[in-house]
Amino acid sequence: TQTERLTMNSRPKQPKYARNKNILVIGGSGSGKTRFFVKPSLMQCTSKDFPTSYIVTDPKGTLILETGKMLQRYKYRIKVLNTINFKKSMKYNPFAYLRSEKDILKLVNTIIANTKGDGEKSGEDFWVKAEKLYYTALIGYIWYEAPEDEKNFTTLLEMINASEAREDDEDFQNPVDLMFERLEEKDPEHFAVKQYKKYKLAAGKTAKSILISCGARLAPFDIKELRELMETDEMELDTIGDRKTALFV
Question: 245 forms bridges with which residues in the sheet?
Fold first, then answer.
């Protein structure tokens, strides 16, 4: 704009300028929010003093077409996450950003929070908590034990599909049970083993209901295009603050 400025200095000399760096733009459809605010902001990519990265919501897919070449000209990496047309999206694998057991818990909570049905109550019931235990155990196993090329949602879905519980046979062991049994023999204090043992406290009928809930919740991830999109990672989200990047979502 011609009149407004936003400092890039996080510690300005005058305290009155030490405010947060958020801007709220309000305007109706066609009022020029994109034309007169978003695009001029993206054009600041020419700044050599304060090189910045951008994360842009682009639901119509027009901004990347209109500004992409300019950003590339100034050595920006272009990243695209397209949740409407998966074939036009770069690959994104959340497993690539797991660094600790705390991150595993965050991923599980994110899965639960973003797969709730429209009429599902917000309060956690027994089944949701049981699902969390199971997801935590499986993701913990994948993160610690699986080869690099298998650390993804496809492996998680395959492990859930390989799980089975029988109401009339409490001693039955499915392939996933055997995997965790071998892991427990190797490391009884393993993070994934501890979570799995808590899940296994459920009786056969209860365990079967938990598995059905897990399968129903993750059913959308069984779409072939989505599984392929989440097999590997091209987004490199952890480098956005270090390298000039423009991410269009």
Answer: 77
Region 41-55 average pLDDT: 85
CB 220 within 8 A of CB 226: yes
Q: How far apart are CA 133 and CA 128, in angstroms?
A: 9
C-alpha 109/C-alpha 115 separation (Å) is 10
Region 168-189 average pLDDT: 91
Q: Mean pLDDT throughout 48-72?
A: 90
Question: Is residue 115 within 8 Å of residue 173, measured between CB atoms?
Answer: no
Contact 78, 60 (CB under 8 A): no
Cα–Cα distance for residue pair 62/35, rounded to 1 Å: 12
d(CA 51, CA 45): 7
Contacts of 124-127 with CB under 8 Å at 24 or more apart are: 127/209, 127/210, 127/213
Mean pLDDT for all residues in the chain: 89
Q: Which two tokens stand for residue 186?
A: 């190797």
Looking at residue 118, its pLDDT comes to 62
> Which numeric CATH code is attached to 30-90+237-248?
3.30.43
Give the whole-angstrom CA distance, residue 113 versus residue 106. 10
For residue range 118-146, list pLDDT tens digits in order: 655 545 688 899 999 999 999 999 999 99
Q: How many CB atoms lie within 10 A of CB 16?
A: 6
What is d(CA 134, CA 225) in angstroms, rounded to the nearest whole number?
A: 25
Distance CA 144, CA 101 (A): 10
Question: Radius of gyration (Cα) for the chain, nearest Å?
Answer: 23
What are the extents of the domains in the chain? 30-90+237-248, 94-230
Q: What is the total residue count of the chain?
A: 249
